């Protein structure tokens, strides 16, 4: 028995289609980091495409950021649930530098390999 790693496309599909505004349940480490990579690639592509016009770049990047805000927050909360922490720990990011570093460390931790109060182990293969 092991935890299956999700693919890039599966992680993006889950975040944007299946769990767009879902703050309950758990998300595996691979699901979280694949979505982070997707947002980075999307922001780079937008920057390259609209580099000729700063106003257009700001508008498009603001709209994309707004569209990805809820799925990103939901994924962060579900990732914290996966390591056994409440989603309210996301507010620790309000502490400059230290809060963000602590969140990154938590996002890199392995999943709890047993069901916890937030749900069963994600992507569990028997």
In a nutshell, what does this entry contain?
The protein is mainly α and 126 residues long.
Q: Tell me the helix content.
A: 55-70%
Q: SS-based structural class?
A: mainly alpha
Radius of gyration: 16 Å
Low-pLDDT runs of 5+ residues are none
- Total strands: the figure is 2
Largest sheet: 2 strands, antiparallel
Secondary-structure element order, as H and E? EHHHHE
Helix segment tally? 4
Word description of this protein:
This protein has 126 residues and is mostly helical. The protein has one domain (2-125). 57% of the residues lie in helices and 3% in strands. It has helices spanning 8-18, 29-49, 54-82, 98-108, and strands at 2-3, 124-125. The chain has a two-stranded antiparallel sheet with strand order 1-2. The chain is globular, with a radius of gyration of 16 Å. The N and C termini lie close together (5 Å).
């Amino acid at each position: 028995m092991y935890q299956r790693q999700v693919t890039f496309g599966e992680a993006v599909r889950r975040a944007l289609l299946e769990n767009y505004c879902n703050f309950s349940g758990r998300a595996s480490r691979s699901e979280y980091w694949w979505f982070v990579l997707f947002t980075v690639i999307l922001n780079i592509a937008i920057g390259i495409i609209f580099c000729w016009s700063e106003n257009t770049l700001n508008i498009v990047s603001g709209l994309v950021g707004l569209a990805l805000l809820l799925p990103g927050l939901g994924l962060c909360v579900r990732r914290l649930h996966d390591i056994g922490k409440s989603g309210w720990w996301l507010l620790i990011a309000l502490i400059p530098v230290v809060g963000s570093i602590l969140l990154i460390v938590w996002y890199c931790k392995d999943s709890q390999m047993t069901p916890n109060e937030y749900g069963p182990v994600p992507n569990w293969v028997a």
